[in-house]
Write a structure and sequence with these properties.
Elements: H1 21-43, H2 49-53, H3 58-75, H4 82-110, H5 117-124, H6 134-138, H7 145-161, H8 169-188, H9 196-205, H10 207-225, H11 234-254, H12 263-269, H13 272-287, H14 297-324, H15 330-366
Amino acid sequence: MRHGTRPRRPAADLSGRDRLASLTGLRFWAALLVVLYHLSRQVGHIPGVSEAAWYGRSGVTFFFVLSGFVLAWTYDGKQVPARVFLWRRFARIWPLLATTTVLSVGAWVALGKAVSAKAVVASLLLVHAWIPDNVVLKGGNPAAWSLSDEAWFYLVFPLLMALPAVRSGRGRRWIWGMVCVGTVLVWLSGSLIADPSLRVWAIDYLPLTRTLQFLLGLVTGLAVARGWRPPIGLWAAVVLTISWHLALVPWSRAVPDALWYSPYQASQLLSAPVFALLVAAAARADQDGRRTGLGGAWAVRLGHWSFAWYLIHEVVIRVWLGKLGRPEGVLDTAQVWLVVIVVSLALSACAYHWVEHPLERLLRRAGPRVPPGDSRVPGPRPGAGPARTR
C-alpha cells in the first residue's frame, strides 16, 4: 500500500452523518443487490437480471467490510469509552431489529406458520448466528442474522483497534495480506465439512468466519484515514466489482450451489478484497472533493433507508408469496418484483423516519456519554472523520 499526503480531516464529530456521502450512497446499491438476490431466488426468474443477481447475497459482505471501514475511520483515537461506543451501536441497530422482528413474527402468524419462541429470543439477544440451527437463524426475522455478526464485531472492535499491528502501515499491510489468504483458506475449508447445512452455517453465518471481512474493512479504513491512496480509482473499482459478479455466472452454470467449490460461498468470501478497494476508492474520492454520483441528496436518502430495506424486504416477499403465490411468466414476475421493491422501500422510508432515526437519537441521549477528560479510546490515534454505517 502506498501512502500519499495526509488529507485534511474534518473536525471531530461522532454524530455519524454522511461526511463520506458516497459510502452512504453505496449502501443503497449493496442493499439492492441483496433484494434482487431474494427476488430471483424466491419470487421468480427474470432473464439477464437474475443471472447477475443470483449471488447478490454478497451485498452482506459489502456491509461487513463497510462496517469495519467506517467504525475505524470514525472512532480512530477518539476519547470514547467502550461502554459509550457499545451503547451507541446498540442504539443504532436494536430498535429497528426489534421492530422488524415483531413485523416478521406477525407475518408468520398471519400466514399460519409456527413461530419459535427460542428463535425470537435469540434474535432479539443478537446471538442467533452462533447457533447452527436453521429454525433459530431464520425463525425471527431471517434477514437479521447479519446483525448477530455485527454485534460480535462491535464487541471485538476496541480489541482489534488496540492491536499493535494496526498502528503501523507495515502492520496493516501484513494484516491485509493475511486476511486475504485467510479468506481463501476459509473457503477451501468447505471441502472438509461434508454436511451441506453445517458448511453453510460455518462459512456463511458464523460470526468468527465473517470477522475477517470486518477486519479487512477496519485496516483499510485506517489506511485511508492516514493518507493511503488505493491503487485504482472509484469507477475502476466499480467495474472490477461488476466484473467479479458477472464472472460468477458461467461458474454457476458449471458447479451446483450444493458443492463446496460452487460460487455460492465464493461470492460471499472472495468478494471482500474487491469491496474493500471499492469502499476505499469511494472514500478517497470524497476526501479529494471529487463528484462521484453517489453522494447526491437522493443517493444519501436511499442510503439512509437501506438498513430498514434490508430488514423489511424479505417480509414483504414472504407475505406476497404466502397470500398470492409465485407469479407465472416473465411479465408477471417483473410486475411482482416492481411491487415488492416499491412497497418495501416505502415501508423502509417510514421505518427510518419514524422508528430507526428518532429512537437512535433518543437512546443516545439517554445512554452513557463521554466524560470530560476521559482518555479511554477504542482506537490508537486521534484524527478521523465520521461516516455512517449499518
